[in-house]
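Quick one, T. Sequence first:
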Amino acid sequence: MSSTLLDLKHPCSKNWLIHLHYVRREFETCKSVIHEELARLNGNSEYANYILALVLRSEGRMQESLDRLQVCHELEPMNANTVNQIARSLFLLGRHRLAVDAYQKAQLLSDDSDSETHYNMGMCYLFMKDLDKAKEHMSLSLQARVSYDAFEILAQISLAKDNIPEAISVYEKALKTFPENPALLSSVGILYMKVGKDQLSFMKLGSALAYDPTSPKALVAIASMIQTYEDYDFALAKYKIAMQKIPDSSSLWNNIGMCFFGKRKFVAAISCLKRACYLSPFDWKILHNLGLVHLHMQQYASAFHFLTAAINLKPDQSQNFVLLAVAISHLESAEQVRLSYEQALRLNATASGTIHPFLLYINYAISMFNHKFKDEAIEKLQAAEKLALEGDTVFDDEIRDILHRLKSALKINDEKTKLEDTDIRNTREKEDAQVQRKRFARSGQESLDLDQAQLQDSTEDLV
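Structure tokens:
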């Protein structure tokens, strides 16, 4: 009888019961037993405090969990596992510098540094924007044990440094270990698409779909690629499948909207783009596309509204100012048109310029002609012709026809000018759309994002 009582008073006598309830996820019962044990032992049970800390963390009570782990550390200062858990709690609380210090202490207490410790330290450095240290620890993590997550973070670090070739190299190395991973195949396929290697991209994305036919990342990426070749029905079929997995993706709704725009179903396009805007109200690309579609519907005030919002969010994109100038031109504000085109020319002269200067000057000349500034129109037309002669770009018949009509209009009298003025306005809208249409169909990477955007970014996530 006395022996039994002594056994029951042992500090570890109910550890088995605490463990049993914990692994069964019977947390309320587990906490009840723990509190009884802590009351009996005056709080001096390391295991009870440790399990209580894990339960509190699972409930989102991070600070209380950290306090319990500190008690465990005081009771057993040489326990490396407890220090690792303290570091994890600090990481979840956003105290990354302290978390790194705790992980380093855990490394000193343990015989060897495991893969998980290096991975967690790499994540801490990543959140502290120390990309070099993060890369170093992710590499050490891979040396200890190969894991998909470490490869993914290494690739993201390379992308954060704008080093796409290095990111592709990381993914290709990962595919040697995980050749049937659809997420890896989708990611590397999207990167190949960004660098213009469409054949390789199509191959990788096709492999991803072979292993997982409903992979939303691969579906959206391959559909956006086909969308650039104006096969809108095929793209919409793929988007429909992806919609079952990611119904709240702004990138996906943006792409669907631009498919309808390509099919000249403007009301459906606006409906989809407004859904995308609702899901991601601060995405300038969606606002740009809304402005573009409203221009085609001759709703110039609405186009002005969306394009102005896009410019406020992304003031360094020349294409926003070009479309804004077209919208303002129809609202009869010649001076504002001139200012918009001048700003577009300044921005387009930088490395990030995305519109051919020839097209910019042609649009500028047409706008000046429509506002009766013939001298300026001739000046801009001459600048466009000079660029056409200097470059080796081949323009399609429609743009050449616009150029011919503009030349003819500038040489005729005022009576006939009114007739040509209407023709040029109609032609100009069509030309502006063709310049921009393919540029702003976002490829979905959630962030991609796709971002990813980018959601996919559309670089990003845009195609």
